[in-house]
Specification:
The protein is an all-alpha fold. 40% of the residues lie in helices and 0% in strands. It comes from Hymenobacter humi. This is Molybdopterin-binding protein.
Amino acid sequence: MVDTNSAFMGQELAKIGLRVRQISSVSDRADEIVAALNQARQRAQVVLITGGLGPTKDDLTKHVLARYFGTEPGDARAHAAPRGGNFQALPAAHA
């Protein structure tokens, strides 16, 4: 399996002068998603999350993220900068 999302994001971030320091892949388990978010908050100034937000009915990621940030599942832009949280939204590179 080839992780094309990470390769693309790394190339695009390099174009604007950002260096990728770590890439993590997490299974579709709530405890592992929360642990990865907690670790990311401790080590990074910018955290980008992709994948897991697909249309499948059994996907946990969007529900775990909404619960983690104290919101409801919905438009991802609404969850990008939660109340006083450490996570910030960057403008989308591609519309």
